[in-house]
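Cross-check.
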Amino acid sequence: MAFVYADRVQEVTATTGTGTISMGGAVLGYQAFSTAFTTGSQIYYCITDHSTGDWEVGYGVLTSGTPWTLSRNVLESSNANALVSFSAGSKNVFCTSPAIATDTAHYAVNGKNVNIVADTNLQTWADSLPRCGMYDCSLTVAQGALPASWWHIQLQRHSNDNPTNLYHVLTATSLNTGGNGVIYTNQCAGGIWGGWVAMTTLNYFTPLVWTSGADLVLGIGQSATASFTSATSMPLHIACGDGQIYEIEIVGSYTPAAAAAENPILEPNNSTPVTNSFNFQYGVQTQSTIVGDHAEAIANNGFLLAAGQASLLNAQATIFTSTATKRSSTHFSSYNTAPNYASGWADSTWNDTTTVWSSIGTIIMPNAWTGTITVRRVA
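Predicted model, tokenized:
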């Protein structure tokens, strides 16, 4: 609903308390609200009590009747910017154009700063604003999921109509350690707020360090890393989805295991391991001699990441998490005193075209292993 304006509109009123303003007739030299506007018009107003010094600036909707009335939504006032409870006696109410309407005051739109009181309820504040646009402010606040902190608040306001037709997006970015660098959003659709939700903060330069618990969601180009000591398995706790591509780098050392058990594998998803459902092939070479070039069908419990009885290993695997064609491709270098494996490759496919690969899974080591794993999302 757009605001309307008119010149020389002022009436007296005997309104008391914080309720609707009832018009009491035009002041000499001015016109009545009923003359200047039609019922349902949204206007800015100012009401003053010259006997007490109380005043209030706000906006409201006019309703015809005997007398005409005006609803009240306060912007600024002598009562700490809250509705004024007016005493008995005559007041003046007139149509005005407050500073907010011209984008020159401490309330402002489209990139200019907004000054609001600390610990203001941000949802109520967003609903009360009379104009669409972008609002910026900084304040100390702790409400809902927002921990106590200084926050930079951005509001995208998309409607200034009745309360059931409000569409806003609030974004809160912490300005000190109280917010732990997390960005929160809160969206209002059709007048209903969804509540504050923490967003993943993407950092494309310093890898995230993942821990146990809920799977971490990586953005494209983002990486996560973790170190481990004397581990025989390493849950990655990283979510994935259909059609995504990830790179996994493993750097570690361990005591070689006995024959056929020496190969590290990746068991997809954080659930019961899949048994004998992976095809793989690999090749290993030392200096100029090919030691092994091997292909095998339906004989592994996960994606093969390396081969050979090594005590030092550096492997880079690319995995494709497509539901229909799940596969990994690895290049690795390894070392042991005998037989001195130098480098190799391994390709694996998961013989399942329907199960969704939703979590990258767990790396199973052949023996107690110490090292670092980094996972990077490519696409």
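Confidence is low (pLDDT under 50) at residues 103-113, 201-205. Residues 10-97 form one domain. Passed to J.P. for a second look.
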